[in-house]
Amino acid sequence: MARFGIGLAVLAAIYLVILVIAGWIAAGVVADRIQSRLAGSLDARVTVGDTDVGLITGTVEVEHLHLERDHIARLELTIDRLEVDVAPMGWVVFDREPAAVRVRGGRLLIAGPEALNLPPRPAQPPVRVGSLEIENGVIDLMVTGYWPGLARMVITIERARSHATTLRTGLSWLFTLEELVARVDLPAGMTVRITYKDRALSASGGFFGATPVTIPFVLPPLDDRSESVQLVALGKELGKQLAIERARRWLGKHLKP
Predict the structure, then answer these.
(1) Higher model confidence: residue 189 or residue 140?
(2) Nearest one of 21, 31, 81, 30 to 56, comparing CA atoms
(3) How far apart are CA 256 and CA 145, in angstroms?
(4) What is the pLDDT of residue 157?
(5) Closest C-alpha to 41, from 128, 124, 117, 127
(6) Is there a contact between 71 and 43 (Cβ–Cβ < 8 Å)?
(7) What CA dihedral angle connects 118, 167, 186 and 252, to 10 degrees?
(8) Other CB atoms within 10 A of residue 84 CB
(9) Which residues does 33 contact at the CB level (< 8 Å), separation at least 6?
(10) Model-level pTM?
(11) CB contact at 8 A, 68 and 75
């Protein structure tokens, strides 16, 4: 029994060493895999920086990922650091679906109303993740065709968390959002703070005033056939409900019963 235990310990140690070496070797392969998968699913040009693979812990870290597409309208995504949790102890060979993805710093530029449109049959299936977290991300929207009179809107995401999501575009995670803390910079120097948690959306600053305006809001399920159209409808519905609640509060304050 003692020899058997020692043998198992030796085999386990050898296996761990193999995983460490394989992770070091696999870094380039994983980088190429990420590049080809994103390029095929999003129909874009993709470059991947330094990649570190930990097969024992089940972590993949990517530095400086850049994606760009300008067929009709321009879409550009830059991620400073990407952390991906996969199956540990080498099990990722059999289960390759990311369990969790964390974005640490990045910028998404959408210039033009057609920037999010994808071909009906992309070369690769979209990436599905178990959860998504974003810290210090920026969404730069220049889509005058969707919101007349609004030339540009910059959304700075301090923190966002979504549950299981199929990433068909850079904004698919909005439909599975669980928590959001963000700042929206509008033309004429107007700034609005947005928070979302427990199916309630709050807005303060700018048109809404210092006291947050809060409304219950349940996100609709994603229709992958027209995600860009659905995103525009979602933004308009949010704006309408917030404006109605702000007007209701103002009337209740200034008018007699």
Answers:
(1) 140
(2) 21
(3) 41
(4) 94
(5) 124
(6) yes
(7) 120
(8) 19
(9) none
(10) 0.78
(11) yes
Q: How many CA atoms lie within 13 A of 96 on its CB side?
A: 7
Closest CA to 129 of 172, 188, 158, 160: 172
Say how far apart CA 185 and CA 162 lie, in whole Å.
23
What does the block give as tokens for 102?
């964390």
Residue 99 to residue 83: CA distance in whole angstroms: 11
How far is the C-alpha of 42 from the C-alpha of 25, rounded, in Å? 27
Q: Is 97 helix (H, G, I), strand (E, B) or coil?
A: coil
Chain CA centroid to CA 110, Å: 14
Sequence-ordered list of residues with C-beta below 8 angstroms from that of 231, at least 6 positions apart, any chain: 116, 171, 174
Burial 181-212 (b: 16+ CB within 10 A, else e): ebebbbeeeeebbbbbeeeebbbbbeebeeee
The H-assigned helical ranges of the chain are 2-42, 227-254
What's the pLDDT tens digit per position in 63-88?
999 999 887 778 889 999 988 887 66
Rounded distance between C-alpha atoms, residue 124 and residue 170, angstroms: 16
Place of tokens 């209701």: 248
- The residue among 47, 44, 37 whose CA lies nearest residue 124 is 37
